[in-house]
């Protein structure tokens, strides 16, 4: 089962249905066994304590993985924005006509980088956007080669080529980071562990004839925690997204006139 392929509200419904369904099942079984609660109280109590502890450990582990990947994706956006900004500044030191063509391409390249943040990885729209970005990269690299060929001894073209390569690498890191998600096996373990733990907890409380509202509230809280964990790993389609603000700001800074004028003839 691919949780990433589900829409946000379908994901909420699936997780809520699994956890709350297991809780209700535990309550029903517990009520049917309430007549033997004296004999079952101790073993079921030990079992539910162990399972609740296991559930807490698994949920914390899964949440830490999701948060780590989310923070890494935010850092990738900042790194790419910085690389684009540096490349744009260095492109201003190139000789014409490479200078003007490169600056125009860098503006389009930045718009494409922003668009990558709004498409879901693995979809046709994502593939088209990445392909368009790769086409801009090819054209920028070709122009950089022309700049080097025209002035092989100058430092400006060589510095530009260096940062251009870093810019390409930064986008590659970001694109691949979007597909670096928490393994499905861990997500399934989280859901299964939460469902079993809540079912046994509900069973234990039902055999005692108390705590029904409490276990339902606990199930809702566990569902919310699962949804947050899953949503952190869906940075382009969930409720918790990685904002492309640094890239948008860089693109905005390119709308004004270049800070440096074109170098004159030697």
TrEMBL record:
UniProt entry tagged with the keyword Transmembrane: yes
Keywords, comma-separated and alphabetical: Membrane, Transmembrane, Transmembrane helix
TM annotation in the entry: 45-67, 184-206, 212-232
A Pfam family this chain is assigned to: Bestrophin-like
InterPro entries on file: DUF4239 (IPR025333)
Name assigned to this protein: DUF4239 domain-containing protein
């Amino acid at each position: 089962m691919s949780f990433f392929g589900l829409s946000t509200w379908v994901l909420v419904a699936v997780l809520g249905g699994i956890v709350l369904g297991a809780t209700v099942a535990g309550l029903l079984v517990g009520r049917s066994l309430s007549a033997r609660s004296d004999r079952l109280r101790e073993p079921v109590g030990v079992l539910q304590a162990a399972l609740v502890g296991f559930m807490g450990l698994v949920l914390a582990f899964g949440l830490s993985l999701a948060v780590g990947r989310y923070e890494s994706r935010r850092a990738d956006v900042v790194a790419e924005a910085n690389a684009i900004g540096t490349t744009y500044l260095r492109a201003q030191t190139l000789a014409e006509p490479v200078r003007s063509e490169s600056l125009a391409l860098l503006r389009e390249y930045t718009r494409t980088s922003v668009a990558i943040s709004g498409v879901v990885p693995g979809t046709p729209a994502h593939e088209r956007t990445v392909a368009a970005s790769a086409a801009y990269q090819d054209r920028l690299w070709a122009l950089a080669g022309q700049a080097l060929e025209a002035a092989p001894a100058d430092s400006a073209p060589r510095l530009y080529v260096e940062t251009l390569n870093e810019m390409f690498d930064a986008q590659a890191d970001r694109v691949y980071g979007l597909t670096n998600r928490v393994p499905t096996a861990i997500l399934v373990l989280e859901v299964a562990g939460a469902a079993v733990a809540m079912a046994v907890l509900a069973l234990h409380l039902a055999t005692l004839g108390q705590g029904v509202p409490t276990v339902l509230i606990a199930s809702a809280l566990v569902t919310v925690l699962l949804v947050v964990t899953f949503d952190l790993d869906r940075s382009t389609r969930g409720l918790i997204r990685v904002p492309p603000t640094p890239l948008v700001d860089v693109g905005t800074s390119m709308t004004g006139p270049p800070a440096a004028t074109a170098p004159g003839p030697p």
